[in-house]
Amino acid sequence: MKVKQHTIGKQVTISGVGLHTGVDANMTFLPAPPNHGYKFQRIDMEGAPIVDADVDNVVDVSRGTTIEQSGARVNTVEHVLAALVGLEIDNVLIQLDGPEPPIMDGSSIQFINILEEAGLKEQNALRRFFEVPESIHYRDSSREVEMAALPLDDYRVTVMVDYNSPVLGSQHASITDISQFKAEIASCRTFCFLHELEMLYKQNLIQGGDLNNAIVVVDRVVTDEELEGLAQMFNKPKVEVRKEGILNNVELRYKNEPARHKLLDVVGDLALVGRPLKGQILAARPGHAANVAFAKKLKRAMEKVGPSHIPHYDPKLPPVLDINQIGNILPHRYPFQLLDKIIYLDETVVAGVKNVTINEPFFMGHFPNNPVMPGVLQVEAMAQTGGILVLSTVDDPENYWTYFLGIESCKFRKMVLPGDTLVFKCELLSPIRRGIAKMKGEAYVGNTLVCEAVMTASIVRKEA
């Protein structure tokens, strides 16, 4: 799995009709900054409201997953989200001039293609995975649905479907690595049973269905009159039933294409948890209602891990900047080179790490026999973290100095001891003007805030 966050390299647009609304729409994918996540924007509505792709925004799961926020609704988001997860894209803004993404051929492959045309762009931020900490289960006895997430240092999905249908029978599909999604799952199309078609049509759903974007499974004897009615409903000259029990609209791409599409739906719906997942997902007879209920359960477990505003540090992952790269930017050297890693960096926020060890030179003289890291050095390390952010705004940081101009509202909330790992976060409070930067700095040990301050610094070009 990719370690760093990714967005797309350029803006791209795809157009088509929505499956259930029948409304034509243009959907534009735009690059987004780190930690942005997936957001939809209804540019056809006043104020162009944003709808976060969040499971808590789900308002309908009838034949698709619909989200709503601030009065703006987006229907059938799962195929688009599945494509983004399958390509391991973390941050994108999706603009729509209609209520529903285009259904295209009923799969995710055309979204995959347009996103690959845009290209993937690596970002200066580590992906913040939700690693399933222990087995999490969901069951709906009334629908014979069972889903589980098991701890795993990867993302694997296995799906079983059984509709008591002589046509479909029992089917399984699985991927053992998310990189398999494009080749094995993305082209698998949505499906429904013939007996559902009329009901869906009467409910004003599948208004954009034209038998070119779904597999129709025929699970009973159909009269000629019914076939004529279907042909009129979908503006086709003739509709026939093949011996395999599939309407003559499409050829199956895989014998277990329905099961593979259900896996696609699971991947798309679980994207609504809000972070890339690490775990093994097992799903028996899943549907959108179960997927969403399970996603909510995963999100509640994720929220127990810690506040989202605290920088996440996973020592197993490579840094954005290592100690050598930091040394190429900052002029500080031993014993005042206090940063070990930069784990996040964008235009306004930076996060860095310092491992506090007993062999630090200041412990020899600062509170002998009671080793406590001096607060002024915590602030210095935090300032060096902010210095990386400020110097990242110039093309030749080696030709600049950064100087402290002021410290405000500084508080030390908890002692920092040998063995602690300090995680610093600095965020610009306003744009840098005339070389002056003002930022809020925070230092954490685990989820505990140990130090904070508002710092002002000046960036000055070195004299030749």
From TrEMBL:
Any Pfam family the entry gives: LpxC
Organism ancestry: Bacteria, Pseudomonadati, Bacteroidota, Cytophagia, Cytophagales
Reactions catalysed according to its record: a UDP-3-O-[(3R)-3-hydroxyacyl]-N-acetyl-alpha-D-glucosamine + H2O = a UDP-3-O-[(3R)-3-hydroxyacyl]-alpha-D-glucosamine + acetate; a (3R)-hydroxyacyl-[ACP] = a (2E)-enoyl-[ACP] + H2O
Recorded superkingdom: Bacteria
Positions bound to Zn(2+): 79, 261, 265
Residues the record marks as active site: 288, 366
Source organism: Echinicola rosea
Cofactor(s) in the UniProt record: Zn(2+)
The family this protein is said to belong to: Belongs to the thioester dehydratase family. FabZ subfamily. Belongs to the LpxC family.
NCBIfam families found in the cross-reference section: fabZ, lpxC, PRK00006.1, PRK13188.1
EC annotation from Swiss-Prot or TrEMBL: 4.2.1.59, 3.5.1.108
Involved pathway(s): Glycolipid biosynthesis; lipid IV(A) biosynthesis; lipid IV(A) from (3R)-3-hydroxytetradecanoyl-[acyl-carrier-protein] and UDP-N-acetyl-alpha-D-glucosamine: step 2/6
Gene3D superfamilies listed in its UniProt record: Hotdog Thioesterase (3.10.129.10), lpxc deacetylase, domain 1 (3.30.230.20), lpxc deacetylase, domain 2 (3.30.1700.10)
UniProt cross-references to InterPro entries, sorted A to Z: FabA_FabZ, FabZ, HotDog_dom_sf, Ribosomal_Su5_D2-typ_SF, UDP-acyl_GlcNac_deAcase, UDP-acyl_GlcNac_deAcase_C, UDP-acyl_N-AcGlcN_deAcase_N
Subcellular location: Cytoplasm
Cross-referenced SUPFAM superfamilies: Ribosomal protein S5 domain 2-like, Thioesterase/thiol ester dehydrase-isomerase
Official protein name in the record: Multifunctional fusion protein
General function of this protein: Involved in unsaturated fatty acids biosynthesis. Catalyzes the dehydration of short chain beta-hydroxyacyl-ACPs and long chain saturated and unsaturated beta-hydroxyacyl-ACPs.
Primary site of residence: cytoplasm
The encoding gene: fabZ
Keyword tags: Cytoplasm, Hydrolase, Lipid A biosynthesis, Lipid biosynthesis, Lipid metabolism, Lyase, Metal-binding, Zinc
Family matches, as HAMAP family: FabZ, LpxC
